[in-house]
Specification:
By secondary structure, the protein is α+β, with helices and mostly antiparallel strands. A hairpin with a 2-residue loop joins strand 22 and strand 23. It starts with a strand and ends in a 12-residue tail after the last helix. Helix 8 runs antiparallel to helix 9 and helix 11 packs across helix 13. The chain has 15 helices and 24 strands. The chain binds flavin-adenine dinucleotide (FAD).
């Protein structure tokens, strides 16, 4: 019976794990161990649309308080400078599998020439606005948006909520992990203190002290699909640039660069492959494109996941369980979903987990990682923007794995939603067919159903775009919206995230 849990790691993974378990199982004793000397990863983060729902819905964190503490800005999607179009926008809404009156086919069939502004969120992104304006003058905040925030602010906010729930914190560096037949039997801190628990959560970041270290679980690399292994991170304080309601992903010579929007700070980074570019050349290319960048730091990483993330009495969550580059900002998604799955599993087995439960948990987590790898592979395989050795290599060598079937289907049938459930399991798919089609159409991957719209279809599409664009132009910028939601008159509807 699990009664006491020790979580190794006080970064976003450890704290989200603590909060998620405590929300479902309030009687569990939870202690978080972290080291000030080692610190947290501290790389500024973007999320997927799942995160606000997890924070304010599942965990019940008050959005007003969260906005004060974590200072998030909103992210409607990713603006890709990628493929043969000048750019395209990937939103978290159903754009390409959506319909509009008068058209027999989904909008994706009409997106070959122009894929912009086919729904409200893509029009908002195009106009650099965060929210539509309601007839009463208030912003229309929907649930299909994500956050950008600085990792340190986010972690400080989570720490505050964890303390309120009675989660205990111990500062100290783990210097020795004692193994036993149950997996890990204790953690010994620098101070000499020994910590025991019924279950250990390994959220020790890339160090993976318990799962990869003590238990020596094998690591399964994604290096036949994802070839980048380094990131240069930098940024600058805003000098009048508007706060954009999206993340930018820009194609670079040997990888891609992100731009994440914080209120006062612009966060830039270059993810690249060290097999194709030296650190010095990457830094030069990055600085050349971003003259305002101040200090930079290099983060080395390997992409992949541990074979199992729940082994004996250890569950790894966060970078200690696996990592892929932040092209779709999926790390927090995996953390929240895995932590929720774990909390539900423990609740259902009354904290007495059996091997079959662990197996099914491991399969669930594996599926998440593999769909993310497959989705990112589609980004690499079809990006025709540059003819550098890196991108030629990607177009030739990127293994699509599970995405192969979707791509083949799309190439013959266009962005059809017939048999969608056969291509992906809609209940569990992260990106859904919408996501795959958004990337395939955005990158202009040819399909056999490409045709010009007839006059009537063109008229309908022009009217749709112009309505969306006009509404978006009247919308709220990020700056205006931040002032409103932090102001004294703003009230969050308590049922909004239920
Ligand atoms: C370049 C880059 C960009 C990223 N961008 C995004 C993004 O946009 N969106 C996204 O979702 N994710 C992003 N990520 C992933 C991001 O790192 C994770 O989402 C997240 O912050 C989880 O970190 P963590 O808690 O697993 O690890 P960390 O923040 O590294 O925390 C590890 C914790 O373990 C503790 N610890 C480790 N070893 C010991 C020890 N021996 N004794 C005591 N304590 C110990 C540390 O002190 C720390 O508290 C990015 C990652 C990188 C590298």
């Amino acid at each position: 019976m699990i009664q006491n849990i020790v979580i190794l790691g006080g970064g976003s993974a450890g704290l989200l794990a603590a909060l998620t378990l405590k929300a479902r199982l309030p009687r569990l004793g939870i202690r978080v161990v972290y080291s000030k000397e080692i610190g947290i990863i501290g790389v500024g983060e973007g999320s997927t649309g799942d995160l606000p729902n997890h924070l304010h819905g599942y965990l019940g964190i008050d959005p007003a308080d969260f906005h004060q503490r974590a200072r998030p800005t909103w992210k409607l999607g990713v603006h890709f400078e990628w493929g043969s179009r000048p750019s395209f926008d990937y939103t978290f809404t159903k754009t390409f599998i959506g319909t509009t009156p008068g058209l027999a086919q989904h909008l994706g069939f009409h997106a070959w020439e122009n894929c912009d502004s086919l729904d409200a969120n893509s029009a908002l992104m195009h106009e650099k606005k965060a929210f539509l304006r309601l007839p009463n003058g208030a912003p229309l905040i929907r649930r299909n948006i994500a956050y950008h925030f600085e990792n340190a602010h986010f972690v400080a906010a989570l720490e505050h909520y964890a303390t309120i729930l009675g989660i205990r914190f111990t500062e100290g560096k783990v210097r020795h992990v004692e193994r036993g037949p149950e997996g890990v039997s204790s953690l010994e801190l620098d101070s000499g203190e020994k910590l025991t628990a019924d279950l250990f959560i390994d959220s020790s970041g890339f160090r993976s002290e318990l799962l990869g270290g003590a238990l020596e679980e094998p690591f399964k690399s994604f290096d036949d699909s994802l070839f980048c292994d380094r990131a240069i991170a930098g940024g600058w304080e805003r000098t009048g640039e508007p706060v954009l309601p999206y993340t930018i992903a820009e194609t670079m010579k040997a990888g891609w660069a992100w731009q994440i929007e914080h209120e006062q700070h612009i966060n830039r980074g270059y993810v690249f492959s060290s097999a194709f570019l030296s650190d010095t050349d990457a830094e030069a290319e990055f600085r050349n494109k971003n003259r305002k960048v101040k200090q930079t730091r290099i983060v080395n990483f390997r992409t992949g996941r541990y074979r199992r993330t729940w082994v004996k009495n250890v569950v790894a969550l966060g970078n200690s369980a696996g990592f892929v580059e932040p092209l779709e900002a999926t790390a927090l998604f995996v953390i929240c979903n895995s932590a929720r799955a774990l909390a539900i599993a423990l609740a259902d087995c009354e904290c007495d987990p059996q091997p079959t439960l662990r197996d099914v948990y491991n399969c669930t987590v594996t599926k998440m990682w593999e769909e993310i790898r497959d989705f990112l592979a589609v980004h690499y395989r079809f990006n025709s923007r540059l003819d550098t050795p890196f991108w030629k290599f990607c177009r030739e060598k990127t293994a699509l794995h599970g995405a192969e079937r979707i791509v083949n289907f799309y190439q013959e049938n266009g962005p059809s939603t017939a048999f969608a459930g056969e291509l992906l399991t809609p209940e569990t798919s992260i990106f859904q067919l919408e996501g795959f089609y958004a990337l395939l159409l955005g990158q202009r991957v040819p399909h056999k159903r490409v045709r010009a719209s007839n006059d009537e279809e063109s008229r309908i599409l022009t009217a749709l775009r112009s309505t969306n664009t006009n509404e978006a132009k009247r919308g709220f910028s990020v700056e205006e919206s931040l002032v409103l939601v932090r102001g004294p008159h703003w009230k969050w509807n308590p049922d909004f995230y239920k």
